[in-house]
């Protein structure tokens, strides 16, 4: 036997709970009277088809959709010739277009407020159905569904649903009721609530907000399906705002709004910062500060605060507050302390709620300082060193800051700085010096002179020892020199001497200034054309006082070196070429190239007896091949008089030839040149 769907015991009450605007059913205790809260149906079953007498069973049914087959709907009822009646009274809100649908085996009748809307009342052997569209007025109405089974299988179904098509439903929902708005001063939020609408096609609610004196806009502040909302976006300006809530249905119809619910916000919005303060300044130092600024436009403006500090940026602290001005007093003047310091001023605006703006721009004034410092350099001492004189002194530090000290030697300033010492490195050997030290403030005021101190500077007269490890190695672009770093800790540089043998004696020349690596390092390169000549070299160390060994001394080591001979064995004609002025430049490495050799030449086509060249051809001497090897041609452009060798080998000497190439493929007499890397 098939029992009724979603039913409770006969002595059960179904109570509706509202959650977020949606209706749900909960069971009441079994001992309660049989009452069914709308929109749940009360269901009564009868042992006849006339609905006469006392119902055999009364319970609640949330939906009419039963199929009993050939059985009975309840214990004690016959399987044929029984009746079931459902009734419910509910609030349809604003009403509107609905669809009633019924189907049954056997008879079913549907009533709205006692008026029959569907009538399928006959004993049938197959399911009969009917759907009607009608308009339900607003407010509360009673639905009644009567079902009878005469013989055979028994089943029944009934639904009523709103028609939500925008082309059919033109009925606006009712305005929400019981709207409230509560403002929280601590958080600045507004809590809104309202009663749930009764519309079956309700889609949700729209909350609107307006500033006092303005109108509600067309765009809602927020949309929700709940019956409450919180506005967290209220400006904290002390202004009054109004809210209204509107319901809208699934067809897009929108109700009128609730009565306006007003709240007044807490004022936590500061006025705008004053402008124009930064335009106040004075040429040079000042003895009186005068400032003005633009009046702040705020209805609740109470006045201004002026802050002054010797530090930037100015901190808005009570210790820095120098004046509180009235609402219309957008000016200030004072005579600042004459300390010679920079004074920085900012202004803020304050409203009647006590809100203070951010700081304005900064006005800056420098004051005069004519007061000399009282600090004196005491206990001045001078210590003579080999290459310098070190001064030390002390002073009273109770003032809390370190002054600047200027150092004078023999009446002339030689330096300044913070601290309690100074090293004079610009001293000469065997010279007497007298020193005095003064404390100086930021304005250039001098404090009392320290006691003088005199020192005899002896100086350093000891030359560094001979260099060791000197080698001279012939390389492809000259003679490479290398030696050990000098053991003396005061070495400034080295002098390099090259010896040439002539007239049965060696003559030495100081070549230090011509070497590519300067004179500070313990290696160098004597760049020259490697043509097989022989040389001798000496290197001597020079200290910071100019002490050095005599290069002619027997203590100075000597090394011999004979150049490599890198010259081509194939001679290049000295004249007869139409190409003139071949120059080769060294541009150093580029990307992954060993080096770059860029060459250029002069050529006058009208003076070439062989006729105008179509282009030029470049050769480079290859020692391994013992011949000039073609590098490449310039483009077919007789005006292009340059070529770049990207594959030149670093650390060697290169020899080039250039010929003019003519239309018949012949070449001119070459012109040659060489370059050192």
Description:
By secondary structure, the chain is mostly beta strands. It folds into six domains: 14-162, Jelly Rolls; 180-264, Immunoglobulins (Immunoglobulin-like), CATH 2.60.40.10; 277-367, Immunoglobulin-like (Sandwich); 378-456, Sandwich (Immunoglobulin-like); 471-562, Sandwich (Immunoglobulin-like), CATH 2.60.40.10; 579-676, Immunoglobulins (Immunoglobulin-like), CATH 2.60.40. It contains no helices and 48 strands. The strands form 13 sheets. It has a six-stranded antiparallel beta sheet, with no helix packed on it. Strands 20-26-25-22-23 form a five-stranded mixed beta sheet, with no helix packed on it. The radius of gyration is 55 Å and the shape is elongated. 29% of the residues are buried.
In short:
The protein contains no helices and 48 strands. The chain is an all-beta fold and 677 residues long.
* Distance, first to last CA: 112 Å
- Average pLDDT taken over every residue: 89
Low-confidence stretches: 1-32, 588-593
Overall tally of structural domains: 6
Under CATH at level 1, the class of the largest domain stands as: Mainly Beta
What's the CATH architecture of the largest domain?
A: Sandwich
Helix count equals 0
Biggest β-sheet description: 6 strands, antiparallel
As a percent range, the share of strand residues is over 45%
Strands of the widest sheet, in order across it, are 4-3-6-11-8-9
What is the β-strand count? Answer: 48
Radius of gyration in whole Å, from Cα? 55 Å
What is the molecular shape?
elongated
Query: Structural class, please?
Result: mainly beta
CATH level 3 topology of the largest domain: Jelly Rolls
CATH superfamily of the largest domain: Galactose-binding domain-like
- Helix % is under 10%
